[in-house]
Design brief:
The complex is a heteropentamer, with two copies of chain A (240 residues), one copy of chain B (251 residues) and two copies of chain C (218 residues). Chain A is an alpha/beta fold and 240 residues long. Chain A is built from nine helices and ten strands. In chain A, the strands form two sheets. Chain A has a six-stranded mixed sheet, with helices on both faces. The two termini of chain A are 31 Å apart. In chain B, the strands form five sheets. A five-stranded mixed sheet of chain B has the order 12-11-13-10-14, sandwiched between helices. In chain B, strands 1-6-2-7 form a four-stranded mixed sheet. In chain B, strands 3-4-5 form a three-stranded antiparallel sheet. In chain B, helix 1 packs across helix 7. Chain C is mainly α. Helices cover 83% and strands 0% of the residues of chain C. Chains D and E meet through helix 5 and helix 6 of D and helix 2, strand 6, helix 3 and helix 5 of E. The complex binds adenosine-5'-triphosphate (2 copies) and magnesium ion (2 copies). The site of one magnesium ion has 4 residues of chain E, from helix 1. The site of one magnesium ion (MG) has 4 residues of chain A, from helix 1.
């Protein structure tokens, strides 16, 4: 589904990703953990090329998206992304947020977009907020709308960048619940998170990153209970 | 405020004479203009002569056009000389000396223009300098604040408007338009004269309302008419003899 | 010093006519200037520095020289070059628009750059193009933030239109000067003009505040 | 139309002298205007609406009327009232300063209000008074943010000083006009002035950018 | 030490605190928990009058601070406060941040302020950062500087408003460690936090707030293991 080969990314002199290789299989849920500044967000943002990569290749369903001939906007419709700070459009209602990309990019009809939007809102439990503006929502509600907005493009893969870290503790649960449901439905997901509970419960595989490298990867029970690398052990001792 | 350009004209000092503050807008060649940082021109030489005749020392200062009126009205300046046209509206606020200059207005048009008289100005747009006899003359012809009259801050801009096709003619003092045509032969302009269409306009010295200086200066103006000093200055600047009869008749 | 109310009354119809032209000049210039300013502002934020250079040059020249000079150049140079004759009102609108555009371009640029980058990323990650994102996501939000500075610019424009009296555009100040030179008076025309300008700018501020408030509640 | 370089050379010493006065006028006005603007800006953000009202009034009047009118009123009214005589340079500095102060007051107000309220709370919670917090915490940060808009205002001021030619302050534009009316020329004086103004504003922008960059690294 | 009587606080029509009564004894560590919007921050901010209170009395060491005659700046020097977002002064170095209030308010000599500042920085483990600017510090370091800054005024009481909720998970520990040390040294503390581990380990008493009321208060072991009120139970079920 996703194959990442020798990915490198520098900001000026600062090499943030140093030769990263990874594979994500269809329907797999990969959780990425690691200390702040280790390159987790950059890794995720490279996958849908919000950052132009410095070297390497990224294949999505066999297509080399780093090839200049590939239409990156087309690729991005296949890859949904959810950000830490939601990035909802404050001047549009919840429904308009969800419908915007389907209308403008997929050119679906207004009725179809509305109908699908309503279904997605029901799915994330916010049908009654369709006409509210983002500012009137709680953090957890905002993040659920952001998930619905990404799903409206019917992506094959979803990327999550610390979707719960800007939320009040009571709201973390409701967002994780939606994500768990997505995983159960077989969505392919790459999730950067500090929620170790989620990683253990939902993750098929955990990747530990540090200083631009993938230091260790394994199934959750192994990585949490028997980390092999010193750096992994040090990190887990602080956050568990 | 040390940078202010002050030109004292009293070369021969009159120890008893009071120093008068005389204001002008040095922006109207050849009557008053700046040569470098010196205010020169016909008006300047004239006021110099008249003040001396009247027994005063003169200190001429270029303050700009609008400021002249504030300075005079508030009596901070004693006399204004700036090719100021005398008219009835202005007499409501200020006193004027006897006329010291007969202004003949002429029409400046492109060489190819078929305007041959004042009457033919009607229906064309005409550029003038605000507050000059040229404006007075054209307004008498077309009507006050007529839409075809374009009033500019100075004749320089009015002529520019003509050159760029925004006006069919400029009406201004003969000295101004003739000087311009002489100095700019490449612009292909000509001067049209029409003494019937334009009334005679006169320049006067301007005083605050009720100024005691008016009487002294009226006497002094007439004195230099008589002793030939006026004609001397006039010839120096305009190269011809003044029409003293018309000027005196106006008194 | 006596204040001559009578000459103000005499000139009232002309001042009114002048004020209407002042309004007309200002409104058309702000509209054209806003449109041009948007294009120039977008030009300035282009990644390609070579393509962006002319826009930088434009803004530098128009912000770096007095409006008075621009008015003269346009009135006596540009307009006659194209039409063969001068036209004070046309030149006035062009000069004010081009001048305002340079300032408005900066307002646009600042407005666009004040929008959190997350908005751009949010939209791009949905597969929207840069242009679509600008039109549907960034600009609508930037516009809202630009209303206060645009309002200021409008007020500046309104007052700057008074400089058009030098090319004999018959706006408010032109008639004020005509009044002054007829009677050789200074206070009456300038105070009268000042009050009319103040009135116009206050009405404008009031309207802009109302607009701002309405947009905020949306 | 031939371009008369000779008259530009002839007037070069006067233009230079004028440019120096222009610089002097602008620098003193921006300094005084900034000081007054700070006071007025602080006045406007006072909680007590009655005390703040005069400051609002000041800003409204000075922003709502053309600078030209303000120059006349100050030159013929205010300055002679205190000193008994007119003085174009003094009136110029006063008019430009008072006008700029109204705009700078808004810049200050915006700058102060752009500082996160947490800064005020952080300092107050340590027992510092409102005044101490303003002086040591809020204003130093606000100043930094105000450099770009203050720089703009400085450039506006520099160009606006050209209006002082109407009261015969012998600054750059005054000499440009003198040159124009001696030779009945438009392009030479205005283009020469435009280039000098452009040069001055560019030097100014450059210096301000440098300052901004230096402050950012601190 | 602190006695709060019938405290009420409204923002316009919105009554955020509805008759709150509480006592904090010397050397006690009180932890305040509750859902978002329940008024925890407002409660804390009323104690040192960052919010002007609508009704009621607050006594600090017997002094009624709501009395108009009391110099509130004087009171605030006795009550240190640490905010969620640190609120460090970005234009001053770490040392200058710490010394500012002692110099300007307590009028101590520069040498004394420097010396004391250095001691405090050693205490929070940041002696080597004395001349750094806040922007160059990590979140955990910033918060430790903020604590040192508050301590520099030698307050008798410290108030903490979610001091760790803006921090990356690995940095939470270092800040909680400093707070634990303070508690051990006998500092009187009121701490709003979502860190239940800290509440259990360090708290002498836990206050649960909801909708502007104190719903329940008790020693940590009781409140976490045997909550009496339905609302407490519902809240704890979400966050534990
Ligand atoms: N746009 C950028 N320009 C320059 N440097 C950047 C940029 N984005 C990230 N970096 C740097 O890249 C490194 C990795 O950042 P990244 O955001 O990927 O880390 P992270 O693992 O997501 O950390 P966190 O847990 O704090 O989100 C950091 O050192 C950061 O400073
Ligand atoms: N300055 C203010 N103006 C108006 N309303 C306010 C203000 N500050 C807080 N509120 C309101 O008071 C209520 C309580 O807010 P408060 O910040 O005290 O809650 P909290 O318990 O600290 O929540 P959180 O866990 O999100 O910090 C909220 O409804 C909030 O909207
Ligand atoms: Mg990240
Ligand atoms: Mg809070």
């Amino acid at each position: 589904m996703i194959k990442i080969e020798n990915l490198k990314k520098s900001f000026g002199d600062n090499e943030v990703l140093k030769n990263v290789n990874a594979i994500v299989s269809p329907q797999e849920v990969v959780v990425v953990i690691g200390p702040s500044g280790s390159g987790k967000s950059t890794f995720l943002r490279c996958i849908n090329q919000l950052e132009t990569i410095t070297a390497g290749h990224i294949f999505i369903e066999g297509l080399d998206t780093t090839d200049k001939k590939v239409n990156i906007n087309k690729v991005r419709t296949e890859v949904g992304m959810v950000f830490q700070h939601f990035n909802l459009f404050p001047h549009k209602t919840v429904m308009e947020n969800i419908m915007l990309a389907p209308l403008k990019v997929r050119k679906v009809s207004k009725e179809q977009a509305t109908q699908r939007g309503m279904n997605l809102l029901k799915k994330v439990g916010l049908a009654e907020k369709a006409n509210a503006y983002p500012d009137s929502l709680s953090g957890g509600q905002k993040q659920r709308v952001a998930i619905a907005r990404a799903l409206a493009m019917e992506p094959k893969i979803m990327l999550f960048d610390e979707p719960t870290s800007a939320l009040d503790p009571e709201m973390v649960g409701e967002v994780l619940e939606v994500m768990k449901q997505l995983a159960r439905e077989g969505m392919t997901m790459v999730v950067v998170t500090h929620e170790m509970g989620f990683a253990k419960e939902v993750g098929d595989r955990v990747i530990f990153m540090d200083e631009g490298y993938i230091v260790e990867e394994n199934i959750p029970s192994e990585i949490f209970n028997h980390p092999q690398q010193e750096r992994t052990k040090a990190f887990l001792s602080k956050v568990l | 405020g040390k940078d202010k350009e002050v030109v004292t004209t009293g070369k021969e000092e009159d120890a008893n004479g009071k120093t008068l503050r005389i204001v002008t807008d040095a922006n109207y060649a050849p009557f008053e203009f700046l040569e470098g940082n010196k205010v020169v021109g016909f008006d300047i030489d004239f006021i110099k002569a008249v003040a001396k005749e009247a027994g005063y020392e003169a200190k001429v200062e270029s303050v700009g056009w609008d400021p002249i009126f504030v300075e005079i009205e508030s009596k901070r300046a004693d006399v204004a000389v700036s090719a100021i046209t005398v008219n009835d509206e202005r007499k409501q606020t200020y006193d004027f000396s006897v006329p010291y200059f007969l202004s003949t207005n002429k029409i400046l048009v492109p060489e190819k223009s078929d305007i041959k008289s004042g009457d033919e100005l009607k229906g064309n747009s005409i550029a003038v300098q605000t507050g000059t006899t040229g404006q007075e003359a054209v307004e008498k012809l077309l009507g006050k604040n007529h839409k075809d009259i374009k009033k500019f801050e100075n004749n320089n801009l009015a002529i520019q408007e003509l050159l760029q096709g925004g006006a069919a003619a400029v009406v201004a003092d003969n000295t101004v338009v003739e000087e311009y045509v002489k100095n700019n032969p490449d612009q292909k302009l000509k001067v049209v004269e029409d003494s019937q269409a334009f009334n005679e306009e006169f320049y006067g010295l301007m005083f605050p309302k009720g100024s005691e200086l008016k009487a002294d200066f009226d006497k002094a103006v007439n004195a230099i008419y008589e002793n030939g000093k006026y004609a001397e200055i006039y010839k120096e600047w305009f190269g011809v003899e003044p029409d003293l009869e018309t000027l005196k008749a106006q008194q | 010093m006596s204040f001559r109310w009578d000459i103000i009354f005499e000139y009232a119809p002309f001042l009114l006519k002048g004020a209407l032209l002042t309004i007309g000049l200002s409104v058309s210039s702000i509209l054209i200037g806003t449109f041009l300013g948007l294009l120039i502002g977008l030009g300035k934020i282009m990644r390609n520095k070579v393509l962006a250079a002319p826009f930088y040059f434009y803004v530098t020249v128009f912000r770096g020289t007095p409006l008075l000079v621009q008015i003269f150049l346009i009135h006596f140079g540009i307009v006659p070059f194209f039409t063969g004759e001068t036209n004070a009102v046309a030149a006035g609108v062009i000069a004010l628009s081009l001048n305002a555009a340079a300032y408005i371009a900066e307002i646009f640029r600042a407005g666009i750059q004040s929008i959190d980058n997350g908005q751009m990323e949010g939209a791009r990650s949905l597969g929207m193009t840069h242009a679509q994102t600008m039109i549907h996501v960034v600009l609508p939000q930037a516009f809202k933030r630009m209303i206060p500075p645009l309002g200021n610019e409008f007020i500046v424009l309104l007052k700057d239109s008074s400089l058009l009296c030098v090319i004999a555009a018959p706006e408010l100040m032109y008639w004020g000067k005509a009044m002054g030179s007829q009677y050789f008076k200074v206070w009456e025309p300038y105070l009268a003009c000042a009050f009319i300008y103040l009135f116009l700018t206050l009405v404008l501020s009031f309207a802009l505040n109302g607009l701002e408030r309405r947009l905020k509640t949306v």
